[in-house]
Batch of 2 targets.
Target 1
Amino acid sequence: MGLLVKDLHKSYGRTPALNGISFNVKPGEIYALVGPNGAGKSTALKTISTLLKPNSGSITVFGKDVIKDSASVREIISYLPEDAGAYKDLSGIYYLEFMSSLIAKDNALRREFVERAKEFCGLGKRLKDKVKTYSKGMVRKLLLARSLMSKPKLAIMDEPTSGLDVINAVTIRKLIKDFSEEGVTVLLSSHNMLEIEFLSDRLGIIHKGKIYIEGTPNDLKEKYKADNLEEVFAEIINE
Amino acid sequence: MNKFFILFKKELKQIFTLQLILPLIAIILMFNFIGHAMKADTEKEEKRNGKTQKTLYIAIEKQSKTSNMIKKILSKKYEIVECGNTLKKAIAFLNSKKDADFLLFFPKNIDADMSSFNTLHVSTFKKIQDFSMKGLMKSDWSDNVLSYLNRAISNTIINSNLKTKISPAFIRKPIYSEDHAIVNGHYAKVSSSEIIDFFTKQNSMIPMGMLMIIIIASQLIAVAIATEKEDKTLETLLTMPVSRQSIVLSKMLAASVAALFMSIIYVYSMNNFNKNMMTGLDTDIVIKGGENMLEKLGLSLNFSDYFIIFSIVILSILCALSISAISGALVSNVKSAQLSFIPIMILVLGSFFLTSFIDIHNASTFVKGIVYLDPFSYPFLALQNIFLGKYRILYYGIAYLSTFFLILLYITSYVFSSELILTANFNPLGYLMRKKVRVDTLFLI
């Protein structure tokens, strides 16, 4: 199993964020967590990414325990936070070189990662410019290239296309899909049902810290006799 | 390359931007320009004074035997210019002369006073032409005129009225004292005020540099961490295969390097400026008869002294950096980080002023307690403690600072390895605002 989450509980002080969620993601699969604001999507992704410690439950990424062996988990995952930025005063190429130096075990691998990221982001000569001169779409492409350049075993992406225009969003979705086909397992969260329908192999609808239902987009549409995922989502949330 | 150095290099690259380097160049150029302008001004004045005999403007209300004697005495040293026999005429004359800045006025009764051995009352008038610092530092040559005149008249009176072989100098001043300073059992032929004056002038730059290093480095690291939090680059970095200690330590080291660099530039520029400003003034008071009075008083440092100072300075900087790293990690944005830095600034500035203006060794127990509890007072006191041989305080300081730093390092490590680094959202501005609302509410009730 690529990712195995069992009975995960997490609260911020007295406020519960996750109330025992369980799900799994198979290797090479794209799994989406879908839910309204405050449902617990970002908390779940941050906990799996080793950023937050759960109150109880277990998470394993390709057999490695996230709580007990977080250092090993960080070797095989990449995390793309929602609305993340890059270092504004550094150039795009420096950012990629810096990040690849932290992941790659040797110089040859580092160069390989950078070349791959340069190709993915498609920023060309603009990579030499400082990040503060980039548009939001350019920054997101740069970050996505960073998160996929090492072909991690598990790529965790929080709202990968949030705030982007249609053209940029389409490019980024295609990039994620291409990578998944190369064997990268993807766990993402999104509000955009069209995006989920296009991207995900399976999805879990999360609300008030619980996963209400799981399945492929077609299974869920069939089960709720809906034309699209938005109708499925609205019906489940209103139940 | 080691991951720590990769992070350190990135931090340096982020700190040393054109926005930082250009103001530093401007500071160097500004201090250099002002210093050289003042030096040129002083040299010009000295050249002018050296070429010609100094002109002395006098006004005598009534010519007499005494006034003639005075003129004779003064003309031996100065070029005398008489500017009338009334005060009004003399002041008008003085005003019309650009270079004239001093007038000596002799009233008509000086002859009668001299005959009856009464004190002669004369008036001096000094023209204020310069309100700048340079104006204050110009030697007041008018005082020298009066002291020369007093000495000469006194000699004349003694020689003509006392039938003795005793020299007038002995009669005027039978006791001559030779000042000595004692420091920590060593003594030398130099006055204590000269030594203290020398230290104030020459060594004021060291605590200033320290103050700058601590303040700049603390601000740099607090803002660097808060910026990473605000831009969410920290979230990315914390999920990379790199230890969290490396992340925080690389930031601390880069901030220290930047602060050290800026302080060296500041101290160098200020020192240059001071040297230029002091041109022509007597700054070489510590060398007397080819002997260095500081060395004779034991006011020089050996290797172990340097090591003690270095340890105290480094430990203080590390304490400041740790406090700033913690505050930068606990706030939610850059504005809050800048505000959370104020307590450190108060502590550092407080130590700087307390140790500069108070004799801590003779202060009350309460003041001593406050000063010695503040970790930033030790670097400011280090030099004087070494010179006064108070090594016990220095060793206590090193032990205290080490303990303080280890506790802070533990807290920093805890904050960075726990989820507090992401979830803490302390907003000092918001807290203060909430406090204000509560006070307002109380008034309303």
Target 2
Amino acid sequence: MLFNSYTFFIFFAIVYILYLLLKHKGQNTLLLVASYVFYGSWDWRFLSLILISTVVDYFCALKIENAIAPKIRKNFLALSMFTNLGILAIFKYYDFFTHSFAQFINVFGWNPEPRYLNLILPVGISFYTFQTMSYTIDVYYKKMKSTSRFMDFALYVAFFPQLVAGPIERARRLLPQILHPRTVTLDLFYEGCYLIYWGIFLKVFIADNLATLVDPVFDVSGPHNGIIVLISLYAFAFQIFCDFAGYSNIARGVSKCMGFDIMVNFNVPYFAKNPSDFWRRWHISLSTWLRDYLYIPLGGSKNGTLMTYRNLAITMFLGGLWHGASMTYVVWGIYQGVILIIHRLLRPFLASLDHISKYITKPVWGGLKIIFFFHVVIIGWLFFRARSVSDALVMMKAIFTNFKWDPSLNITFNLTLFIGFTWILIVVQFFQYKRKDLMVVYKAHPVVRTLFYIVTMLLIIIFGVTDGSEFIYFQF
Amino acid sequence: MAVNLSTFNFKKLPWVCISALIVVVAVQFLFAFNPLLQDALFTFSEPSLSDPLRLDIFYKKAESSPQKKVFLIGTSQGREAFNASVLTERFDRKIGFYNMGSAAYSAIDFYMEIDRIIDAKPDLLVYMPYIGNFYLDYDFKRLKYYYNPKVLPFISKDIGTHVFLEKKWFIFDAYLSDALYFYKYREGLKPILFNVLDYMIFRLGKTVEPKYFRYDTSRGSEYFENQVRAFKGSKFYFSQYTDIEKQALQKVIDSIQKSKIPFIIIDGPVNPKIAGAYEFEVGTAYDEFLAEIADVNHVTFLSKADMPQFPSDQFIDFTHLNSAGRAKFTDFFAEYLQANYTQLLQE
């Protein structure tokens, strides 16, 4: 059941009407049942994995909190980690590591015949696994109390708006909202509807239309034309943003309508001026998760420069691997780690360049930095989207060696489509960035809002892709 | 904190959204009914992608025309075969010929639209069926263009009610399309928007002629050989919709005969190289069906045998005539009409 399908809107309308009629306890029960129905609509068998995670983490957290001996606390934390990461390892990574290992020892002349599991990847497994793990870790570090209300905890794990593609909510934020009665106000409802609308627009108008510029280029082997590759790379940068941010907006909007406050997952990331800034704006729920549960426990930046670089590299490598069992994600993660390290190394030099702004004004200098860093980001997207690392290298080579205007390739047409599909996002994001307010359109003058709704409605009606294509991040 | 169901106590309505919605509906209404805007849409439209939209525009033009009119109904095969302007000239511009050939227009679509066609009061109805209408599966994606609820019991009678469950979103889409003009014809509007953009950037001020046909040239023999290989004899086949399509055509004939509108069925010319793209039995069954339905219902039927020969170089592919083929076919048809229908059309 996809957010951009009629089925979901009928499902949500029914759930929402019942939700408004029920009291707190009934609402939570309804949401839990709805969440399981929502997840089960993909494949009911995988509900068992969510239930295992739920039961194990529920009991482990209670035991951790009630135990006095550190060893017992540690053992139950280990049990929780083992279960969650074990499920993830079997369903997501087993075949990848087995294959990689077989290829590695093949180099030494040994030809093993590895056994693959060929399991279907359960939708959203990485999201809910990280979400439940954060709960037991927080209880272990005494950052929050465990809950004895099993049904409410189960709802925290399976809360349908953000179950399959995040944001990865911490128990510290979401669980109290589940445990306590919520207030649904008219303002929240309208805000939620706006977020849902904007999310749908990002997905069905921008992301799904840009796919027509991306897929034909990335899904074939070379030779490639450099200009076409660059246009499709720009298109992919916006496609993945609109796909994922669109989902997050819908998740936040649906939650808001029901009185929940889900965290912001994207904050105009392509207006970042450096890698650290980017990771404060892109997939915030994952980057903060990695920071809090991986980078800082590894030592963060407290143990000297070299250790900081090591920690950054490990964190981003695992961040890349989190996205999927493929070398392309691993390379993407390593690339992100490398640019974070280079940025740290060059920080004094980069700061010294800021005096250029005296000659060309601050906004122009800031704009140049944004444009430059955007291009650094899209090199990473090349590896992220390519079918293989070698494909990515071939495409990158085309950008640098075959950057020729070929009239037979419809370059003008592709560029026109790209601009046509993205201009409205760029305008909205510019104002979101300028005013430091993601709800800038929602709060704009009524005439501006009316125009915004007219234009976006017409674009959705005429160009919206309404066949319910999947969100990219579901595969993670 | 108690649950506050204040959502039910709307103190103020979302006026911004409501006004935007009103504008969006009004704009669509304007485009759907203003003759000038309809002309503009037609001028910039593209044959094939915009066919359902062009068909709708033709109906509206015909409905308001005081002239005698001939509707040329069919698929893209018909669209490419009849040159309506030449036919109009041949009848001294006294009769309006409307080339209503629309890509993949099936007998089920014809059945859904027949009431609208009869209401437009044509003086003669000409139907060029396409073998694919009867020997391919019905494309539910196109249901929204011609949707009429009377088709549901008709389809379910033969295939079963489970078809509603399987195709529920297409049916939902059809209702949604009835409410939103732009949504209904969005596939046809996209090329129009691109053409308008292209005109505004590169050709502003120049006269734009509407395109009536899509194909003018012919393809090399290699194309046909590859196609025959690719289809492996299954370009057309007996489908679960074959009988329903046949029944739909019978119902169409019943309605037309009740309305007393003269009706001609004319078989579409096909490329001689089509042999091998589908099984011989399918072709025979199709020819027999057309002859039989025309005979049983006493409908005028022009078979391939009644027409001149069309060599392969007068086609773009297996079923679509190119400009040379079109000129020949139109000439044949004009002569046929002049010989047999002049009195009726000029009364």
